[in-house]
């Protein structure tokens, strides 16, 4: 699973972004669903998702796997001290 972290701040919330990759031999839709399930175990609540990139792995001129790279935005509320 590949990850790229970025973040933005809004009020008392913090939205780190994680890129995850999913694969399926059947479709890009199933690959994207697999990416959502592939998120790091530390992420419990996803605020939003965005499809970033769709690719295929070819084997002998035929699709061997569909690959979906998905960005997950996680809503973390900051507790002011």
What would you say about this model in short?
With 81 residues, this protein is mainly beta.
Based on the model shown, name its key terms.
single chain; 81 residues; mainly beta; 5-stranded antiparallel sheet; 1 helix; elongated; disordered N terminus
| Shape label | elongated
Radius of gyration: 15 Å
Overall pLDDT, averaged? Answer: 77
Distance between the termini: 35 Å
Order of helices and strands: EEHEEE
Q: Which structural class is indicated by helix and strand composition?
A: mainly beta
Description:
The protein has 81 residues and is mostly beta strands. The protein has one helix and five strands; from the N terminus they run E-E-H-E-E-E. Strands 1, 2, 3, 4 and 5 form a five-stranded antiparallel beta sheet that branches. The N terminus is likely disordered.
